[in-house]
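Entry: B12-binding domain-containing protein
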Amino acid sequence: MADDEIILSELDDEELVLQMHDDLYDGLKEEIEEGVRILLDRGWTPYDVLTKALVAGMTIVGADFRDGILFVPEVLLAANAMKAGMAILKPLLAETGAPKVGKMVIGTVKGDIHDIGKNLVGMMMEGAGFEVVDIGINNPVEKYLEALEREQADILGMSALLTTTMPYMKVVIDTLKEKGMRDDYIVLVGGAPLNEEFGKAIGADAYCRDAAVAVQTAKDFIARKHNAMA
C-alpha cells in the first residue's frame, strides 16, 4: 500500500465530499460506494449524500464535458460510478420520500437503434437528481405514450441519429397533440442530425445538443413549471 493512499474513513465530512467529487470525476466506482456508506454511517441523510456528494460531483463532470475538457468515455465512467452510489441510496431515498427533481421517460425513436447519446443523457439526468425511465431503442409512438402515462412523467426525451428517423419525432408529438396530452409533458429532443430549427418545426419544447445542455434545459423547464403551479 502506497504511503500517499487516501483512507476515506479518516477524512472529515468536508474533505470526504471533495474527495468523492474527485473520485466521481475519475470514475472510481468502489471509492464512491465506500464514500456513500461512510457518510450514511455518519448520520447523513440519503438526500444530502445524493445532492452534496454525487449530484454536486456530476455537475463538475457535466460542466467539463460541455467545455470539451472531458469526453464521452470519461463521462460514462463517472456516470457508472454515480450509478453505483445511487444503487445504495435508491432504496433509502424511497423510504424517506426525498424530493424528486422530476421524472423523465427517454428513448430512441422507431427505426433507430443508436443509444450512446441517449444513455449519456439518461445518466447525466440521474446524476442531476432526476428519475429516469429508459425505454430503449426503436420505439413506436404507442410505446412512448404508454410509458409517459404509466410513469406519470414530467419530461419526454427523444433521440435520433439518422436523418431518416428524425421525422418520427413529429409523429410522436402530433399524436400527443391529437390526444390532448401535449401540454402535460416537457418534450426534449436531441441527436447528431438535429438542430434548433428542427426542434421548433416539430413542436418540441427544446432541442438539446448534448447531455449537459439537456440537464440544464430540463431543470429550467421544471423550475418554470413549479413556478407556474405556485
